[in-house]
């Protein structure tokens, strides 16, 4: 059944800006404030990973500490291990996300360990998050293909998703990291994962490298998924997936959903403006077709 309402998890300030030329802390805080003003209530604001690996996210603590908080908005951060969690907690993150993969090679390149080792690292993080009552989201990368291994079996996506869910993640975000999937495969993958994780706890995180993200979302909407990750202006990519472009542009997703009569509570024109503003900082046009059409 088609949802009547959808929750959008905005990843532009993290997934987007982690793979763009560095922008100032002030520009990032301005972007996050504009996203909240446009009605986004779930905003990934930074990432507590090694600054040697991802220098673009080195100011995440400053951002979380200084951003004026809007009531009703959750400001979250990526945390690969206990050290990252402790830094995020000190900085005042409302929730955090652990990130694993359905591909051994991607796991190794991205977080320098195997899938099994990553899960070992997540255990103390999950325990500490529980003590502090911090909700943890779980990402699984490479759900429709891997830049190093090619095809990934849906059984492996389901296996890793189930582990993260059983560890206590409140939501599992399924990432097509390199945007390679097509609708039939996306649907098949979601159906397989929904056998082990309730569909209401699944989110889709589709990069738009091959222009398939909206089609894939449409193919999965009537399965009952009602949370989608997106990145304003289509910002970003993934530093450990060569050639990956940004996530689906939030503006394009909102336009499609509103056109279908599905509620998001997002003001599209304010959102498009936020996207144009950060694109101007980056010195290029917005990556959202809708934002450019509305200009
Ligand atoms: C995971 C690590 C840290 C392991 O890196 P490592 O080298 O294996 O870790 P280590 O424990 O051996 O520590 C090495 C150094 O890193 C430091 N360190 C250790 N942990 C932290 C931390 N949390 N924060 C800050 N510093 C940290 C640690 O203190 C030490 O510092 P040194 O002694 O050399 O000065 C590293 O591989 C890393 O930072 N990788 C970057 C991963 C990343 O950010 N990837 C992009 C995000 S994932 C993504 O975009 C996909 C997603 C989620 O969007 C979904 C999709 O699209 O598929």
**CATH-defined superfamily:** Aldolase class I
Identify every distinct bound molecule in the structure, by name, code or SMILES: 3-hydroxy-3-methylglutaryl-coenzyme A
- Neighbour order of strands in the largest sheet: 1-8-7-6-5-4-3-2
CATH hierarchy: architecture: Alpha-Beta Barrel
Q: Got a strand count?
A: 8
- Name the structural class: alpha/beta
Question: What does the overall shape look like?
Answer: globular
- CATH structural fold name: TIM Barrel
| Sheet having the most strands | 8 strands, parallel
Strand and helix order: EHHEHEHEHHEHEHEHEHHH
Structurally, how many domains make up the residues?
1
Sheet-strand content, in percent, reads: 5-15%
Percent range of helical residues: 40-55%
Instruction: Extract low-pLDDT stretches.
Output: none
Q: C-alpha Rg, in Å?
A: 17 Å
In whole angstroms, how far apart are the ends?
34 Å
Count every helix, treating DSSP H or I runs of 4 or more residues as helices: 12
Per CATH, the class reads: Alpha Beta
**Residue-averaged pLDDT:** 96
